[in-house]
Amino acid sequence: MSNKTGFICDESYFWHDTGNGALFLRSGGWVESDVHSENPATKRRVKNLLERTGFIQQLITISPRMATREEIEYNHGPAYIDQVKKLSDQMGGDAGAAAIVGTGSYEIALLSAGGALTGLDDVMKGQVDNVYVLSRPPGHHAEKDLGMGFCLFNNVAIAAHYARKKYGLKRILIIDWDVHHGNGIESAFLNDPEVCYISLHQEFSFPPDRGQAEVIGEGEGKGYNINIPLPAGTGNAGYLHALNHVAVPIAEQFQPELILIAAGQDPSAFDPLARMMVTAEGFRKMTALVKQMAEQLCQGRLVVCHEGGYSAAYVPVCTMRVIEELSGQKSQMVEDPFQLGIEALPTEVLLAHQEEAVKRVQQIHADYWKFD
C-alpha cells in the first residue's frame, strides 16, 4: 500500500559551513586539514540519489519555512539563541563542544527547525501521511543553553513542544535511533509525562556521560525516558529486537497521538563515528516497524527528521530505504550496491550480550511498563 509521503529539503541546508576538519575536530595542531564529518555531502547525496533514481517524483516535495524566534524559545534560552546569532553574524565560532556555527548558520538553523515544523503541520492537517525531513544542521544533542555534537537548535524537541502548543497533543512518542545518545531531547522532557522518549544508541559513545539505562526520568516523568544502550557491533537483529521488545510494548501502552523519529543513519556498518553494523535493509525494517506502529496507534502520524550519519557513500543508500518504506514504494535501486562489503558481517545475528542489554532495560522499567 502506497502512502502520500512528504519530502522536505532546501539548498540552504547544504550551505551550513563546518569548515575544514577531521572526523569531529577542527583542523589545526596535530590534526591535518581534511573534510569535517558533518559536511554537506552526506545529506546532499541523499537528495542526489532520490533525483538520480527518479524516486523523488513519487514524493510530495515541500518547501520548509523558517522557525520563528518564539518557536525556538520553546526549547532554548534567549541568551543562547542570541549567542548563536552573534557568532553567525560575526564570521562563526563554537556554540558548544563540536557545535560549529558558520557565517549565516543562524538563519539556516532556523530553517532546519522550521523543516520539522513544516512537516509536522502537513502530517497533522492530512496533506501527507508521513514525511521525511532532510534537514541540516542536526539537533538532538542541543541542550537548552548549549550547542553540542554538531547540533545548534534541537529540531525534534522544538517540534514536540510545537505539537503540544498548536495541536493540543498530550502524548508524543519520540524514537531516536541515531547511534549517539540524544541528550538534548532527554534533557528537554526528563520531567514530562506527555513526551515518551526512547533512545537506541551505542553504549559508552557520545556524549560519554549520557544515555545510561538507569536514567528513567524524574518527577512526573519517571518511566517516560527509556535509554537502550546497545553494545558495539550490534546489527539489524539487535536493533529490531530492541524495538520489538521495548519500544513496541511501551508504545502500545502509551498510545501516542504522534510519533517523531530522530533518524540518524550513523548506526550503519560503514559509519566513521560509530561501531555498529546496521545495513540499509536494517533501516528499512526499522522504518517498517515504526510506520506500522504509527498506523495502528496514531492514524499514521509520523514525522522523520534526519540527524547524524557520516558515511557519504552509505548514508544515501540507507536513507533511500527509509523513504521507500515510508512511501510504500520501491525505487530503481533494487540491490544495496554495498552488499559485497556487508554480506559476511553477522548483522542478522542476535548475540547473547545484545539480548541481555535489552533485557536489562526491561528490568529497569518493569515498574512502569509491562513487557512480554
TrEMBL record:
Q: Which GO terms describe its molecular function?
A: histone deacetylase activity
Q: Which InterPro entries match?
A: HDACs, His_deacetylse_dom, His_deacetylse_dom_sf, Ureohydrolase_dom_sf
Show where the Histone deacetylase domain sits: 36-325
Q: Where is the signal peptide?
A: none
Q: Which GO terms describe its biological process?
A: epigenetic regulation of gene expression
Q: Which residues form a coiled coil?
A: none
How is this protein annotated for GO cellular component? cytoplasm
Q: Which family does it belong to?
A: Belongs to the histone deacetylase family.
Indicate what this protein is called per its UniProt record: Acetoin utilization deacetylase AcuC
Q: Which organism is it from?
A: Seinonella peptonophila
